[in-house]
Amino acid sequence: MQALTELSDRALHDAVVDAGGKPFQSRQIAHWLWHHGADRFDRMTNVPGPLRQKLAHRFAVRTTDVKHVDLASDGTEKLLIGLGDGETVECVIIPDGERTTLCISTQVGCPVACVFCASGMNGVKRNLTTAEIVEQVLVAKGRLTDGRRLTNLVVMGMGEPMLNLDALLPALQRIHDQDGIGMGARRITVSTSGYPRQMERFAAADPSYNLAVSLHAADDALRRQLVPTASHPVRDIVTAAHRYFGQKGREVTYEVVLLDGRNDRPDDAEALVALLGALPCTVNLIPWNPVEELAVARGLRRPASHRVDGFADALRRGGLKVTVRRQRGADRSAACGQLRLRGGDGHP
Ligand code: SF4
Predict the structure, then answer these.
(1) Degrees (nearest 5) of the Cα angle 219, 224, 225?
(2) Which of 331, 324, 310, 302 has its CA nearest to residue 116?
(3) Which domains can be identified in the chain, with CATH numbers?
(4) What angle do CA 205, 206, 208 make, to 5 degrees?
(5) Cβ proximity of 190 and 168 under 8 Å
(6) Is residue 348 pLDDT above 50, yes or no?
(7) Distance CA 61, CA 264 (A)
C-alpha cells in the first residue's frame, strides 16, 4: 500500500479530492504529516473521520517503522528503521548540550566499502526512496522529549549520498521547506566519499547545504587502501569541493577517520597540510570507533589519544582548523552499520 509520505503535494491534493475532500484538507493533512509528524490517521483530528477512513483504505501514513532502539548512557539513541520490503537502515540521534543532531542513511548498505565501516561490509542492496529518507527525520523528531528540538541534520549514515541524489535532493527539499519540516539549510550537512561529477550536481541544488568530504588520506595509494572503491584522485575531489565553496560560500569540512598506524603518522599529517593547508576548510578528525568484526579481520585499531592529539597539533601547526570528534554512544553498537549488522539486538 502506498504511503501519504510518498505523495507529492499535487498527488496528495488529488487523492484527497478523489476521496471526496476539499483542497484545503490536503493542506491540513500535509501539515499533520510534516509539521506535527502524525504517523496515524486518527492523529489528524481536524480532518473529518469519513475522509480519513476513505484515505486509510488506499494509503498508509508512512512506509517505515522503528524495529529497535539502542540507547547509550550518554543519551545517544540509535534507531533501526524497518522498510516496507523487510530491509533495515540506521539513524542516530545525538544530543549534545543545546544541540541535537540526527544522522540519517541514504542507501541500504553502501557500495563504497571503506575498510573500517560495518555499513559497507556486504555492499549495497538498494537506494532509499525520498519518503524513506524524510521519514527518518520524522521518526527522530517524534522521539524527542523535554522540549528538545532537532537542531542539526547530517547525511552521514549508511550509504553514499551522492549516489542517490535523485531521492536525496527532493528529500532535503521537503526537510528544508517551510511547508515541510522547516529545517534551515545551514543546519543540514551532506557527507560524501568524493564523486566530483555528482558534487557538481549537488552544488546546483538550491538552497545551499553544507558539504563534508570523507577524505581519510591525502595520498591516493593510501586512500585506496582505506577506500578500496575510490576511483577519483584526491586532487580531483578537493578541486570539486573547493569549487563548491566558491559557488556556495560554504566552507567544506574534510573528515579523516584515524586508524592506528595506518593514516595517523606524521607523514600523513604533513601530506594533509600540503593538500589542504591553503584552503578555507576545517579538518574533522574521527578516531575510529571500533567494530569488533573488522578489528579482528583487518587488524584495525583505534589510535591512542596522544597520537590523535599529536596528529591534530601537526595539522594546526600547518595552518589548518581542526576539530576532534568525541566518541558518542560508545557503550552499544556505536559505529555506523553496527546495529544493522547485529540484527538489532546488539549481538552478532
Ligand atoms: S564510511 Fe560511509 S562511505 Fe564508507 S562504507 Fe561506510 S557508509 Fe559507505
Answers:
(1) 105
(2) 302
(3) 4-58 (1.10.150.530), 74-341 (3.20.20.70)
(4) 90
(5) yes
(6) no
(7) 48
- Residue 162: other Cβ atoms inside 10 A: 23
Burial class (CB in 10 A: 0-12, 13-18, 19+), 109: buried
Would you tell me how many other CB atoms lie within 10 Å of the CB of residue 202? 23
Amino acid identity of residue 100, one-letter, is T
Q: Which of 244, 85, 89, 219 is nearest to 162 (CA)?
A: 244
Over 80: is that where the pLDDT of 346 sits?
Answer: no
270 is catalytic: no
Name the packing angle between helices 234-248 and 196-203 (round to 10°): 10
Which grid cell sits at 135? Answer: 521519514
Asked whether the predicted pLDDT for residue 115 surpasses 90, the reply is yes
**CA of 79: how far to CAs of 102, 288, 295, in Å?**
11, 21, 24
Whole-structure pTM value: 0.94
Task: Report, as an integer, the average pLDDT of 23-39.
Answer: 97
Q: What is the DSSP letter of 171?
A: H
Contact in structure between 342 and 348 (CB atoms under 8 Å): yes
339 touches ligand 1 (CB under 6 Å): no
Flag whether pLDDT at 345 surpasses 80: no
Query: Which cell goes with 77?
Result: 539513541
Q: Active site residue: 6, 77, 90, 135, which one?
A: 90
What is the CA(258)–ligand 1 centre distance, in A?
Answer: 14
Closest CA to 163 of 112, 227, 214: 112
51-65 b/e with 16+ CB inside 10 Å = b? bbebbbeebbbbbbe
Q: Is 117 a catalytic residue?
A: no
Query: Please, are residues 195 and 232 in contact by the beta-carbon 8 Å criterion?
Result: yes
